[in-house]
Amino acid sequence: MAKKKTEQESAAVEPEGAVQEPEVVGPEGAAQDPEVVEPEESSALELELEASRQEASQNRDLYLRAVADMDNFRKRSQREREELAKYANENILREIIPAIDNLERAVEHARAGEASQGGLLEGVEMTLSQFGKVLEKFGVKAFASLGEPFDPSKHEAMGQLETPEHAPNSVAQEMQKGYLLNDRLLRPALVMVSKAPAAQGGESDK
């Protein structure tokens, strides 16, 4: 009777139809409240997001500036290459002009009859000497070919010449000088290549 009365009293305490809220139970069985984002934490997230946006904007500006600098460098390099190709021979041409001046003076004197044959020859020889010094200054030198063995790497054969004065297959006559530029062939020499003279008829009969 006492147990039955206790159950009836418990039922009378809770109203009919009442719904009990479930308790949040933690790992250890303790009741926990739902997670709530604090205002201070939300403000920190917003500041971090704003800082990320500013950093992204700065990186974009740096990227655009780098692209513009690279484009300017490319254009400047192109201009420098064009100017170098256009004026690459400026120094050697400046050195050649005085030699041309001397030739013009020699021609003027010859036309005016002011120079004897010897004086004209002297002027031309002086001009040739000046040209030679200019070429040497820039590493250009003529090389000797007469009497040397024929070398196809620096000689260009124009024909053969029968002569007993030179060994066969050697340079018997130099028609145009060859030049080297710093030990590299600049222009081959035009030469005639020697060959043994044909035997005379009387000697061949013997």
List the topology elements:
Blueprint: H1 2-13, H2 39-86, H3 90-112, H4 117-137, E1 140-143, E2 155-162, E3 171-176, E4 178-181, E5 184-187, E6 189-195, H5 201-205
Helix pairs in contact: 3-4
Describe the structure.
Strand 4 (178-181) and strand 5 (184-187) form a beta hairpin. It contains five helices and six strands, in the order H-H-H-H-E-E-E-E-E-E-H. Strands 1-4-5 form a three-stranded antiparallel β-sheet. Strands 2-6-3 form a three-stranded mixed β-sheet, with no helix packed on it. The model has no long low-confidence stretch (mean pLDDT 78). It has helices at 2-13, 39-86, 90-112, 117-137, 201-205, and strands spanning 140-143, 155-162, 171-176, 178-181, 184-187, 189-195. The protein has a domain at 139-197: Head domain of nucleotide exchange factor GrpE (Nucleotide Exchange Factor Grpe, Chain A, domain 2, Roll), CATH 2.30.22.10. 53% of the residues lie in helices and 16% in strands. With 206 residues, it is of the alpha+beta class. It is elongated and about 120 Å long.
Q: What is the mean pLDDT?
A: 78
Shape estimate? elongated
Radius of gyration from the CA trace?
Answer: 52 Å
Q: Let me know the CATH homologous superfamily of the domain at 139-197.
A: Head domain of nucleotide exchange factor GrpE
Strand order of the largest sheet: 1-4-5
Count of β-strands: 6
Uncertain parts? none
Please tell me the CATH architecture of the domain at 139-197 by its name. Answer: Roll
Main CATH class of the domain at 139-197: Mainly Beta
Please indicate the percent range of residues in DSSP E strands (runs of 2 or more): 15-25%
Euclidean distance between termini CA atoms? 168 Å
- What is the structural class? alpha+beta
Count of individual helical segments: 5
Instruction: Determine the fraction of residues in helical runs and give it as a percent range.
Output: 40-55%
Largest β sheet strand count, sense and barrel closure? 3 strands, antiparallel
Query: H/E element string?
Result: HHHHEEEEEEH
CATH fold field value of the domain at 139-197: Nucleotide Exchange Factor Grpe, Chain A, domain 2
